[in-house]
Design brief:
- The chain has three helices and six strands.
- Helix 1 runs antiparallel to helix 2.
- The strands form two sheets. The chain has a four-stranded antiparallel β-sheet. The chain has a two-stranded antiparallel ribbon with strand order 1-2.
- The chain has 180 residues and is of the alpha+beta class.
- It has one domain.
- It is rod-shaped, with a radius of gyration of 31 Å.
Amino acid sequence: MQGRIRTSAGRTGKGRPGLFPVSLAGGQDGSSAVETAVVLPLLLLLIFGVIEVGNAMSTWLMIQNAADTGARYAATGQGVIGGTQMTGIVNSVNQILVASRGQAGVVTVRSWAGTNPAGAGRLNNPGLACDTVEIQVGYTYNTITPIASMMGLFGSNGWGAQIPMNAYARRVNEPWQPCP
């Protein structure tokens, strides 16, 4: 029997095998294609998910860092004498956002008298010495993989989705003048 090869047609013959020799596993020619068709979408979903979550977390940390920077700027009282404190806060926040992601955010400043942030606070007012100041940064995160579109998340219908993100930072203003 040496030299005989079994082919997919079930014949045995001497010489060259047929185009599709039968596998040693016993007739499972298309199983690899089916397994690939089942596993590949799950693998891509996992890979895209890891990439997207990592990038989203990196973006959120950048937004939180920008909010912290704005709160530090506000707490030091820079620009109080020249009347440029609000502009300086917004510029310090957006400088980080634009340098990191190329897109500015929406900066909201709120303050409360003293160290107890109760109530609505004073909007667009960094407060006086020893007041509590809060910086809120709103940012629109643009996804970098098609996973949100594939899953129909966030109302996306194209390649990327837009996800709103917010970060907050509070500080007590330094006593650059005597506290009330």
